[in-house]
């Protein structure tokens, strides 16, 4: 049976480090790292994610400010709020919960965030910095996946990784981080041909397609590491359940190591968000220091 990569336990370790850094910033610089979260509308999944982020931030001793905006908020109103947060020296990180209602332009909103406060790492400047290997604020989900991978595979150099999914928030930054770690990276997506055999040749498979149970046991080389990013709500015998993109029971008999859903990548994503917020606070402090 595959080794289980326990995201809850690992994320608690990251959160302990975050809490220590929060305490250092407070005692040495009188700074309380603070995350501003912007939620537009009533999307139920977004409300759960936002509640968890705010709760974890408080537990780590950080400041958190939740801005709940009406679903009918205009682009101008949202841009003005972002501008205010950009100029608020008490706010170190800004997160706009996605997806936004369809009348709002996500790209415009992301581009409006000060890149130094962009704790999601989605601003085009941070995306470019990641591609150039110079990023300081790296998207949280792929960052969490890398921490998990390092735990079970201390040496990533030369390993063949397949990333299933090419979104801006998961697939693309994931591939950039694996490349930086000297993996040989293949990106797969909905138009990829013979995806099973590509995955079967991989030492690492990252599943981020949003398709329940897409990755079966016959996709996985014996002993490979499988990271399941997917979070899909499905009905099983009348009960709503969260499952990943990987057929967990079958794949765990073939893989060498695997993440569960829930309790895998999800908790790591939140921990990395808070890690990014302390990093942003530290960098903003450094930028104020006299030369
Ligand atoms: P997107 O819908 O933005 O992207 C999905 C990607 O998967 C696309 O590139 C798509 O290809 C590809 N894809 C879809 N179907 C297939 C298929 N049958 N075979 C191969 N590739 C396929 O999703 P996200 O990247 O935002 O999220 C992916 C999953 O991860 C979701 O379940 C989401 O809920 C979850 N998630 C989990 C997080 C966590 O913290 N654990 C954080 C963020 C997301 P194409 O580009 O060709 O359409």
From TrEMBL:
Q: Does the keyword Magnesium apply?
A: no
What's the catalysed reaction? (6R)-5,10-methenyltetrahydrofolate + H2O = (6R)-10-formyltetrahydrofolate + H(+); (6R)-5,10-methylene-5,6,7,8-tetrahydrofolate + NADP(+) = (6R)-5,10-methenyltetrahydrofolate + NADPH
Q: Report any one BP term from Gene Ontology.
A: tetrahydrofolate interconversion
Q: What is the E.C. number?
A: 1.5.1.5, 3.5.4.9
Q: Specify which residues bind NADP(+) according to the UniProt entry for this protein.
A: 165-167, 231
| SUPFAM superfamilies referenced in this protein's UniProt entry, alphabetically | Aminoacid dehydrogenase-like, N-terminal domain, NAD(P)-binding Rossmann-fold domains
Q: Which UniProt keywords apply?
A: Amino-acid biosynthesis, Histidine biosynthesis, Hydrolase, Methionine biosynthesis, Multifunctional enzyme, NADP, One-carbon metabolism, Oxidoreductase, Purine biosynthesis
Q: Where is the Tetrahydrofolate dehydrogenase/cyclohydrolase NAD(P)-binding domain?
A: 139-284
Recorded hits in InterPro entries, A to Z, give: Aminoacid_DH-like_N_sf, NAD(P)-bd_dom_sf, THF_DH/CycHdrlase, THF_DH/CycHdrlase_cat_dom, THF_DH/CycHdrlase_CS, THF_DH/CycHdrlase_NAD-bd_dom
| Gene Ontology MF, one | methenyltetrahydrofolate cyclohydrolase activity
> What does the entry list under GO cellular component?
cytosol
Which CDD domains would you find in this protein's record? NAD_bind_m-THF_DH_Cyclohyd
In terms of superkingdom, the source organism counts as Bacteria
Q: Where is the Tetrahydrofolate dehydrogenase/cyclohydrolase catalytic domain?
A: 5-120
Q: In which pathway does it act?
A: One-carbon metabolism; tetrahydrofolate interconversion
Name one matching Pfam family.
Answer: THF_DHG_CYH_C
Assembly mode: Homodimer.
> To which protein family does this belong?
Belongs to the tetrahydrofolate dehydrogenase/cyclohydrolase family.
Quote the function comment for this protein: Catalyzes the oxidation of 5,10-methylenetetrahydrofolate to 5,10-methenyltetrahydrofolate and then the hydrolysis of 5,10-methenyltetrahydrofolate to 10-formyltetrahydrofolate.
Name of the protein described by the UniProt record: Bifunctional protein FolD
